[in-house]
Specification:
The chain is of the alpha/beta class. The chain contains twelve helices and 13 strands. It has a seven-stranded mixed sheet, sandwiched between helices. A three-stranded antiparallel sheet has the order 7-6-11, with no helix packed on it. A hairpin with a 2-residue loop joins β6 and β7. The chain binds pyridoxal-5'-phosphate (PLP). Pyridoxal-5'-phosphate binds next to α3 and α4.
Length: about 375
């Protein structure tokens, strides 16, 4: 039997092949590979889509985070980098890139434990952390698996404690909080177009969204070696651009992203329906009513230490699964050396979570097969 992979980009391509091939042909004709017309067009279209003033494309989601922080350091501190006394809070349950961006910006990360029902930053613990630490300058909420953080609470806290908010929207393109698109609610939103994301290109790519003219201008400068003109730098810059070809692919896929997200939500309903009564498996909690969840991942909790065995069982039955993420950031060597308290919910999540295949083109029969395979495991391992 053919393997069911966690995401099936071949099927997706088949579905949109005509459109994609046409736009690639267009690029082959004009040969403007660097900052060609599609790059500007994509920035404009996504700014409209998110209802923000500016979108600046960059080379990756990691760069979107880093350049955002660098621009904040320049704007708020009049320095190229933050310094290690300046603390930025984020979630321990995220991709390494989120924490790395903090270190590379010169600041120090503080990890605050997650809410076990959403896997996002626990906003009560967030406030305790602000109270305890005097030099917190900002927070990076990560909308993990496509689910919005409680942005009302985070914005209130950021106003109360005078902090910046940089949303990590790498997993939540198209997701909403109270009908506002994620990435439009903080001072900045950082997106990734890595191929497997909800809006993914044919390679690396990223984007920053902001309503601030000043931050937009600074980020633009940082993408071009640190100058308004690359031959006259005023800041320590980067070469961080989105390829024309990627922009062309993304412009095409942007037309489909809402319908693909809707399909992900449908698949989730089917999974919930078929998996909710299986022993040792906990399906995801129903999202907050203000949240439009776009299910970048469909993530189960597997109880009583059975996660690894279930993963093995699924693999033996040709079903690919993933663990996002096996090690919380505060346990990684690069983030250690700074006193970090135990974060029991993040640590427990890392032992229990398992993400199943989720793809807009997953068929009913595949969903049923996956659910039945989970059921069989549960009968064998009560
Ligand atoms: C993918 C991802 C990133 C980094 O994006 P890249 O484009 O791979 O650099 C950052 N944060 C989160 C939460 C991600 O999932």
């Amino acid at each position: 039997m053919k393997e069911i992979s966690i995401i099936n980009l071949q099927t997706q391509y088949k579905h949109i092949k005509k459109d994609i091939d046409k736009v690639i042909q267009k690029c082959l004709k004009h040969q403007q590979w660097i900052l060609g017309p599609q790059v500007r067009e994509l920035e404009e279209k996504i700014a409209q889509y998110l209802c923000v003033k500016h979108c600046i494309s960059v080379a990756s989601g990691s760069d979107a985070l880093l350049l955002s922080l660098r621009a904040l350091a320049i704007k708020l501190k009049k320095r190229e980098f933050f310094n290690p006394d300046e603390k930025i809070i984020t979630s321990p349950l995220t991709f390494t890139a989120t924490g790395n961006a903090i270190l590379k910006s010169g600041a120090s990360p503080i990890f605050v434990d997650i809410d076990p029902t959403t896997y996002n930053l626990d906003t009560n613990k967030l406030e305790e952390c602000f109270k305890k630490n005097s030099n917190v300058i900002g927070v990076i909420p990560v909308h993990l698996y496509g689910q919005a953080c409680n942005m009302d609470r985070i914005k209130n806290l950021s106003q109360k404690y005078n902090l910046f908010v940089l949303e990590d929207v790498a997993q939540a393109f198209g997701g909403k909080w109270k009908n506002k698109k994620l990435g439009s609610l903080g001072d900045l939103g950082a997106f990734s177009f890595f191929p497997s994301k909800n809006l993914g290109g044919f390679g690396d790519g990223g984007m920053v969204a902001t309503n601030s003219d000043e931050l937009a201008q600074l980020i633009k400068i940082l993408t071009k070696q640190g100058g308004e003109n690359k031959n006259n730098a005023i800041h320590i810059g980067y070469n961080s651009r989105l390829d024309t070809l990627q922009a062309a692919v993304l412009l095409t896929k942007l037309k489909y992203v809402d319908s693909f997200n809707a399909k992900r939500r449908k698949i989730t309903e089917m999974y919930n329906d078929r998996l909710s009564n299986i022993k040792n498996i906990a399906t995801p909690h129903v999202p907050n009513k203000n949240c439009y969840h776009v299910y970048h991942q469909y993530t189960l909790r597997v109880l009583n230490n059975k996660r690894n065995a279930l993963q093995k069982h699924l693999e033996n039955n040709h079903i690919q699964t993933m663990i996002y993420y096996p090690i919380p950031l505060h346990k990684m060597k690069t983030f250690s050396g700074k006193p970090q308290q135990a974060l029991p919910e993040a640590e427990r999540a890392c032992r229990e979570i398992l993400s199943l295949p989720i793809d807009p083109f997953l068929r009913d029969k595949e969903i049923n097969y996956i659910a039945n395979t989970c059921q069989k495991f549960s009968l064998k391992h009560p």
